[in-house]
Specification:
single chain, alpha/beta, Rossmann fold, 14 helices, binds uridine-5'-diphosphate
Length: about 400
């Protein structure tokens, strides 16, 4: 079992002591987290580490998964896209019926009564709040960029959001302008002890890359992402084609499906057909718990991209930065907080811009190394799990 002491290599002793003190004052309370998938995507990734770590501090914390049919997740994916930006669709009475029925079914399955604090992640389980009891604190944890949502989507959320005691956004820009409950800002985090981020031996790295047919002796451009249009895998491929006119390089699009994202398969097939004639482009669809493989590819990559069109946070950016890689990221959402333009990587708006910055990094090893060092330090100070846990406990303390 992981304990706080295991992190003393990465953070100051005082921070660990402060956390112990904070936790002592909260012993006896019970916390529940609810999201909609056990595997795949950033939320599950964070909870899989945050929940055991909170327990190790003596605060009983559980994690429940809200389940639904394909139809339900089709609607919530549309809602997700509409919250990220306008003109992504509309909500009809059939959607609302499915949402309410699924919420009702989950109310029977998920026990929320025994908890003092309930964290609800994203819009899928939002409606569970109708079960909220007087002595409880319910917090909505939003992982989406809701700075310019489709108003219809936000109005739908408002059926439930206003019953919460507080909500949390990743960055101040995401706070919806007419929010009526107290908003807090807490960016996500990565866990340096997770098999995805911990040190791994060179042999395993070389063996993994070779296993998938990638040539370790030539430059590798990498994007790790669920197969999702907002992550722009097609744009990444086009940028790589521009780079390839001048550089002999390979592209690896490493992805997986999440059970709460029904579009994954469709997008994966589109990518496969696009790259079918290109022997240097790889679309690898790995099981969602292939953490060591993701780790190996991130360490082996020459240049890491995250060319998202919209992004809540993009944990993959910090994951790569932690491994000393400069990242070229879409100029959007939480990516802007992680990439300090020109120091820890580059922010890009277009396919041409992505290709330009990729060429620049491919051609300059010392720039890659210097930026990679800054990148790791930036993550160490801002985006590690210890800071995240501390922020959550502080918020709980202030609400209780
Ligand atoms: N991930 C993974 N395998 C994949 C694709 C993604 O393990 O094939 C992980 C990735 O390393 C990261 C998380 O899933 O930890 C994705 O989180 P992020 O915030 O980047 O994006 P989200 O999927 O939540 O939109």
């Amino acid at each position: 079992m992981i304990t706080l002491e295991d992190y003393s290599r990465y953070v100051d002793r005082e921070i660990i002591e402060e956390l112990h003190l904070l936790a002592k004052g909260l012993r006896g309370i019970k916390i529940l987290h609810v999201n909609s998938t056990k595997k795949g995507g950033g939320v599950a990734e964070i909870l899989s580490r945050l929940v055991p770590l909170t327990n190790s501090l003596g605060i009983e914390t559980n994690w429940e998964v809200f389940s639904g049919s394909d139809e339900f997740f089709r609607f919530t994916k549309k809602l997700h896209n509409m919250l990220h930006m306008p003109n992504q669709g509309s909500i009809d009475s059939e959607d609302i019926n499915i949402y309410l029925k699924t919420t009702y079914d989950n109310m029977q399955k998920i026990n929320t009564e025994n908890y003092d604090v309930v964290f609800i992640h994203d819009p899928q389980p939002l409606g569970l709040v109708v079960k909220k009891m007087k002595n409880q604190k319910w917090i909505w944890r939003c992982h989406i960029d809701t700075s310019t949502p489709d108003e219809k989507a936000w109005s739908f959320l408002e059926l439930f959001v206003n019953s919460y005691d507080a909500c949390i956004f990743h960055i101040p820009e995401f706070v919806y302008k007419n929010i009526r409950i107290p908003p807090y800002i807490i960016p996500p985090s990565i866990d340096p002890l997770h098999p995805k981020n911990s040190e791994i031996d060179e042999e395993f790295i070389a063996e993994t890359v070779a296993r998938y047919g990638v040539d370790a002796s030539r430059p590798i451009i990498l994007q790790v992402s669920r197969f999702d249009r907002l992550k722009d895998p097609i744009g990444v491929y086009k940028a790589y084609r521009l780079v390839k006119k001048k550089y002999d390089c390979q592209l690896v699009l490493l992805g997986s499906y999440a059970t709460d994202d029904p579009e994954g398969e469709e997008v994966y097939k589109e990518v496969l057909s696009l790259i079918s004639e290109d022997k240097d482009a790889f679309a690898l669809n790995l099981p969602p718990d292939s953490h060591r493989e993701v780790n190996a590819f991130q360490r082996m990559a020459t240049v890491v991209l995250q060319k998202s069109i919209r992004e809540g946070f993009g944990l993959v950016v910090s994951e790569a930065m932690w491994k000393g890689k400069p990242v070229i990221g879409g100029n959007t959402g939480g990516i802007r907080r992680q990439i300090v333009e020109g120091y820890t990587g580059f922010l890009v708006n277009t396919i041409e811009g992505t290709a330009y910055r990729t060429r620049q990094l491919l051609s300059d090893e010392s720039l890659r190394r210097k930026m990679g060092e800054y990148a790791r330090e930036w993550v160490r100070h801002r985006f590690l799990i210890i800071r995240h846990l501390r922020d959550y406990l502080m918020l709980i303390k202030s609400l209780l």
